[in-house]
Amino acid sequence: MTGLLMCAALLTVNASAQREPAVPLVTHDPYFSVWSMTDKLTDGPTRHWTGTEQPMRGLLRVDGKSYRVMGDSPREVPAMNQTAMEITPTHTRYSFEGAGVRCVLTFLSPLLPDELDVMARPVTYVTWEVSATDGAKHTVEAYLDVDSRIAVNSQDQFVVWGRSAAKGLQVMSVGSQEQRVLNRSGDNLRADWGYFHLAIPTDEQAASAMSSDAVRSFVHDGTLPEEDDVRMPRVPTDGAVQLAVAFPMNVSGTHPVERHVLLSFTQDYAIEYLNRRLRPYWARDGKTSGTMLAESERDYAAVDAKAVRFDKELVADMERVGGKDYARLTTLAYRQTLAANGFAADVDGRPLQFPKENFSNGCISTVDVLYPSAPFFLFFNPALLEAQLKPVMDYAASGRWRWPFAPHDLGQYPLADGQVYGGGERTEEDQMPVEESGNMLIMIAAMGRAQGDMHFAKTYWLLLTKWAEYLKEKGFDPENQLSTDDFAGHLAHNANLSIKAIDALGAYAEMAQELGHTDKAKAYAGLAKTMAAQWETMAQEGDHYKLAFDSSGTWSQKYNLVWDKVLRLNLFPTKVRETELAFYAKHMNRYGLPLDSRKTYTKLDWEIWTATLADSPQQFESFTAPIAAWLDDTPSRVPLTDWYDTLSGKQQGFQARSVVGGVYMKALSDDVLAKKWRNRAQSGASVSHLQ
After folding, report:
1. Does the N-terminal peptide bond of residue 122 adopt cis geometry, omega within 30 degrees of 0?
2. 535 — pLDDT class (breaks 50, 70, 90)
3. What is the arrangement of strands in the sheet containing 23-29, beginning at the earlier edge strand?
4. How far apart are alpha carbons 429 and 544 in whole angstroms?
């Protein structure tokens, strides 16, 4: 289906039918991630996921009069009426109508997990599709400019700019003057090394300019300045240029016109891992940014066609497995999950993926961030989960990590040079020993099952055995410690954390059996079963199970129980799930189920894990309906937060994190569906598979 044919389907979607908290436009990694955080694309500036302005402006000039289609400036230029907005897993489409024309503006970030070479390219395609609605002929010019703030952390940094050429493209680029590569780590940061590129196909008769006066010239007479501004370096607040392009179009009811550009941000190095600088995966073989852009342009039509098919099939499958609200949620979470990761190449060229703990503490490769996002990668391509777990395991196996439990993190993004959370490498203070050890055992067992072998577990068997022994001693009745829900504080005798340890021991037993360690398999399977029976007695309190073994009158979501169902460990009797679900039905708030009895806030990922315990579609949808209402109503206009209040709908913290990949747990629980999507994935698949 071509983009123009998609327009007809798009126009059937009422622009006011639903409203997302934020709309993904450009989504690749924590540095290259631009969103619209308003109802209409013309209501405000586009922003980095952190909320910092990174303006991209779009105008349409029809028969000599200009209209805005993206951004809230220039204010004197009226906004064209936005008639529709559609988000699919890889596309965002806006439709506008006015002055006798229709314009569909599409953003495509082709994050295809079975095409790693394509997924790794930091390229978003922006496409205009313009046609007449009145049957008349119209002279139209489409305009786009990108502010130089897109290439720096703060607007007081000096930038430089220039032009280059790639095969089939003219390229305008801007970047910081200093280029302090991998110079610091942090959370609320944008890039201050690397270069943003606006690449324009040479056969599309476009005019381009690097100027701070481009928009004024375009609004005045539809032209761009003939000369680039070469006064540099400059700061964005003092005359730094915008990169601008304008396309002439002659449209009519029978002659629609399509144009596109490529937006890209490239860095020579993506991640520092244990003091080694790693190149982006797309550049692992010495590929230059020019070559990468040329390949992206060459593959545009094939990439778009595959992405359209991908979107249509995935949305249909998500609706079948979980209903319309679930399909909406998984769609909105799709690009965010991948864009919260840095994608690098190891020294041997193998993929390594490093999530950033956005708006939490900026940690990199946090194990209890890997854990909630794991369902996404287990569903689409387990090789990507292996690419996330390998750096953690190699670090844990090194002499630097001396504790008998799994680490919490590898550092602070983008510097994965060793744990910084809690006691770090120094002390056991404020660690998450049961949490992270259980997480690693469960994820590695689930990954081995998804891949059809336990090669990863075999490589790190001694380490996994050490963690299993730790959980055998410490996991059933956890001491006063943190869990992944560390914002709630320390908690002793945590019943949900105990479930994680029990499931992890069951998972370890399964791995042992697969690897031929039959004695260990039998011993740990028996131990896990015994612990599960003891858990039921200790946690039960009337019509539900307690938050902590020693805390009467409390309750909590037992979301860790989902692995007992998904991995078919069958350690806990069915009545535990049924009892909890019946209890949760009585405690549902307007926007969802609270995390536990202490507060009214919840976690989005855990809600879907808990909902996946349900056996009927109606029971599952009783969880997703309040979440859909929250998406419509929340006053927090940010990329999906996973921590919000179930009464007010307000964000409590966190945003744009990869943990929203956890909403794919329901899809993962369908073995047939998960196998279908996994079978498409071939690590390192080439572009030839697009044909």
Report:
1. no
2. very high
3. 23-29, 32-36, 47-48
4. 33
Residue burial 524-552, b: 16+ Cβ < 10 Å; e: rest = bbebbbebbeebeebbebeebbbbbbebe
Q: Compute φ and ψ for 18, nearest 5 degrees.
A: -150, 155
**Residue located via tokens 């080694």:** 276
Residue 56: exposure state from Cβ atoms within 10 A (0-12, 13-18, ≥19)? buried
When the pLDDT of each residue in the chain is averaged and rounded to a whole number, the result is 95
| pTM of the predicted model as reported, rounded to 2 decimal places | 0.96
Which DSSP category does 434 fall into? H
Q: What pLDDT, on a 0 to 100 scale, did the predictor assign at position 499?
A: 98
> For position 255, what pLDDT does the model report?
82
pLDDT at residue 682 in the model: 60
Give the residue-averaged pLDDT of 583-603: 98
Per-residue pLDDT of 228-240, as tens digits, reads: 999 999 999 898 9
Q: What are phi and psi of 305, to 5 degrees?
A: -65, -45
Two tokens, residue 610: 């808990």
User: Is the pLDDT confidence value at 601 over 60?
Assistant: yes
Question: What letter would DSSP give residue 291?
Answer: H
Give the pLDDT confidence score for residue 254 in this predicted structure.
Answer: 80
Asked whether the beta carbons of 164 and 275 are under 8 A apart, the reply is no
CB-side neighbour CA atoms (13 Å) of 377: 28
Name the nearest CA neighbour of 88 among 316, 312, 339, 376. Answer: 312
In what helix (H) or strand (E) does residue 303 lie, and over which residues does it extend? helix 300-322
Rounded distance, CA 210 to CA 229, Å? Answer: 6
308-320 pLDDT tens trace: 999 999 999 999 9
Residue type (1 letter), 252: S
pLDDT score at 271: 98
Q: Among the residues of 323-432, which ranges form H helices?
A: 324-339, 367-380, 382-397
Q: Which spans in 412-494 are helix H?
A: 433-451, 455-459, 461-474
3-class state of residue 22 by DSSP: coil
Residue 17: the pLDDT is: 57
Mean pLDDT, rounded, for 162-176: 98
**In b/e form, how buried is each residue of 399-416, taking b as 16+ CB within 10 angstroms?**
eebebebbbbbbbbbbbb
Distance between CA 320 and CA 408 in Å, rounded? 36
- Report yes or no: 490 and 480 within 8 Å, Cβ to Cβ: yes
CA dihedral 272, 273, 278, 284 (to 10 degrees): -150
Question: Which residues, 6 or more positions from 549, have their beta carbon under 8 angstroms from its beta carbon?
Answer: 477, 493, 495, 498, 538, 539
| DSSP assignment string, 177-216 | SS--TT----SS----SSEEEEEEEGGG--EEEEESSHHH
Q: How many residues does the structure list for the chain?
A: 691
Q: Which residues contact 324 (CB under 8 A, 6 or more apart)?
A: none
CA–CA distance, 450 with 673 (Å, rounded to integer): 12
User: What is the pLDDT confidence band of residue 18, given thresholds at 50, 70 and 90?
Assistant: confident
Residues 197/189, Cβ–Cβ less than 8 Å: no
The Cα–Cα gap between 533 and 564 comes to 14
Query: Residue 304: what residue type?
Result: D
Output the pLDDT for position 229: 95
Residue 347 corresponds to which tokens in the numbers above?
């020294």
Count CA atoms within 13 Å of residue 18 on its CB side. 18
Extract the tokens encoding 659. 């943990």
Complete DSSP assignment for 520-587: HHHHHHHHHHHHHHHHHHHHEETTEE-SBTT-TT--B--GGGHHHHHTT---S-HHHHHHHHHHHHTS
The per-residue pLDDT for range 56-83, each reduced to its tens digit, is 999 999 999 999 999 999 999 999 999 9
